[in-house]
Amino acid sequence: MASKEALLQAVDEHENQLLTLLERLISFETMSPPARNTVAIQQFIDAELTQDGFETKRVPFYEGDELLSAQKNGSDAKNYHSLLLNGHVDVATVDRDSWHTDPFKLTQKGDLLFGRGVSDMKGGIASFIYLFSLFKQLGIDLPGDLRFQSVVGEEAGEAGTKTLLKNGETADFAVVGDTSNMNFQGQGGVITGWITLKSPHIYHDGNRAAMITTGGGLKAANMVEKMMVVIQALEKLEQYWGITKSYPGFAPGIDTINPAYIEGGLHPAYIPSEAKLWITVHFYPDENVDDITHEIENQVIAAAKSDPWLKDNLPTFKWGGDSLLADKGEVFPSLELDPHHPGMQTLQKSFTEVTGEQPTLGMSPSVSDSGWFGYYHIPAVDFGPGTMEQAHSDNESLSFKQLLEYTRIMAAFIYDWCHSKGEQ
């Protein structure tokens, strides 16, 4: 069996294989939205993994989308650590007119690779699959189990990773190869919610004068206008959070409440009898969804009770969901990092071995599927190539030098972690 040193040497010697693989992944137009377009890429990845000795399973998701999980059994799995690598194959929507190159054709200019998804996050996926191929080519049999999840839905807040983990897939440690600019990252959480105001009666707009004029006598309200009471209550809570809450690794005020979308009314001939506000809430890693939503509800209800009309027609709430596209709701749980976990320490050792530097531990300003590992109590880290500035951007690019360095780090880490003995 080849040594770790031979593996690291092979990463550089066969770098064209990595480029060819990334080029193929980029060629699949897996934009989300519209989504429902990932079966072909999952079939391609399935064939690659099968060729490399993995047992694969494709799980139906939404029509036109599939989840893929794979495992290569370790030679002594009972005694050695298992590892799970995770990545999403859906990419952000493309405005082709804003691109200087074909977004679905990998283009190299010097050190930069251009194409939709190179940073977010087909670069990370290509690195994983490339390493699986090298393990096969070099005859490297790992003692610990090696698992891989190629998921769908991260771009639209869909529960791809959640579905696989809920089905019982687990490991001693997990790495989500999403965009982190080579930093070790945890994340805060995100949840969306709908706040609804509804009048028990519908009125023609000709009744507005009777509603708003002294002596008019009609006890009624315009739900679009009443939504201002809700928005003002949310602004006050958001400001209070910014003053009173903090978490290491985050700039002040990251815990926000964004009134993102509002809908209401039938048409101009009616007084709006219903209005709905869609909000996005960011919270810190040491907070949980139930406490955060309860705090928001209490704030809004208190404001409504101080309003002479809303006190008898209190708002209702609907939180989260499994898809921004299918049911207009999402949840991304938070992920706290444990720098003392053996998996983190091994990854840090591999990073230093390859780069000669210490990794940066921090918190992502965005969210990824890594939070689901925290939710299911699987030690994990988000660690991938590419920068947040490039994710979702026009003319998305990735440094090939960084991708190769990432691949060497992951090669050393996979080798060492799956050769380290687990707890008995």
TrEMBL record:
Biological process annotations from GO: lysine biosynthetic process via diaminopimelate
Enzyme class, UniProt record, top EC level: hydrolase
Pathway: Amino-acid biosynthesis; L-lysine biosynthesis via DAP pathway; LL-2,6-diaminopimelate from (S)-tetrahydrodipicolinate (succinylase route): step 3/3
EC code(s) of this entry: 3.5.1.18
Annotated Peptidase M20 dimerisation domain residues: 219-306
Naturally occurring in which organism (per UniProt): Lentilactobacillus otakiensis DSM 19908 = JCM 15040
The protein's name: Probable succinyl-diaminopimelate desuccinylase
Keywords: Cobalt, Hydrolase, Metal-binding, Zinc
Family that this chain belongs to: Belongs to the peptidase M20A family.
Superkingdom, natural source: Bacteria
Co-factor(s): Zn(2+); Co(2+)
GO molecular function: metal ion binding; succinyl-diaminopimelate desuccinylase activity
One Pfam family recorded for the sequence: Peptidase_M20
Catalysis performed (reactions): N-succinyl-(2S,6S)-2,6-diaminopimelate + H2O = (2S,6S)-2,6-diaminopimelate + succinate
Transmembrane segments: none
